[in-house]
Amino acid sequence: MKVIAFPRKEQGTGASRRLRKAGQTPGIIYGGNGAPVTVALDHNALFHALKKETFHSSILDMEVEGKVEKVLLRDFQMHAYKQLVLHVDFQRVDPNQKIHVKVPLHFINAEISPAVKLGGGIISHVASELEISCLPGDLPEFIEVDLSKMEVGASLHLSDVQLPKGVTPVLHGGQDNPTIATASVPAGQVAAEGEAAEGAAEAAAPAEKK
What we know:
Layout (H helix, E strand, L loop, with lengths): L1 E6 L5 H9 L2 E7 L6 E6 H7 L3 H5 L2 E5 L2 E12 L6 E8 L6 E10 L5 H4 L4 E4 L3 E6 L8 E4 L8 E3 L10 E2 L9 E6 L2 H23 L1
Parallel strand pairs: 1-4, 2-6, 7-10
Antiparallel strand pairs: 1-3, 2-3, 4-5, 5-6, 7-9, 8-13, 9-12, 11-13
């Protein structure tokens, strides 16, 4: 995905405010072997790009004055109540150095799982993204999570997820095998089934006395 930026010479709060009034967003490119570079980007193009999942989890081609560098989106700040991007940060990537990135999880095959198809249950997504470590060339846009074998009452953990080649999870907080998804029957449905069973038992009781 290509991103076009322009050199930004003026810095400071006043300069950033003028940029925003002119329809641009101030930003910075840092890391790698180069010095930090302050840039400006077209606000509307950036605003729409931020709505795309791939913009957050892919290696981007950043072009500044005809020179293209490989970068990752690292941070951005939004206005408290306006649809306005205040600032954006990009980090250069080295093809030979591993990066830490959060990638989205795409859940598939829930509708054919025993939990949903046979048990009438629902599958809850405990995690929506996973932090991984890999070389830039191995970075996946997303990771698929297959739910086809989930049973009611079961949980799917990280160890059950097939990670792409060259990708390893980055875990925090002492969790070595966190829960990714759970399958359960809605509380209302459990209550209804219980009432139906009680009704059937009461109806059968008089018949047994006869």
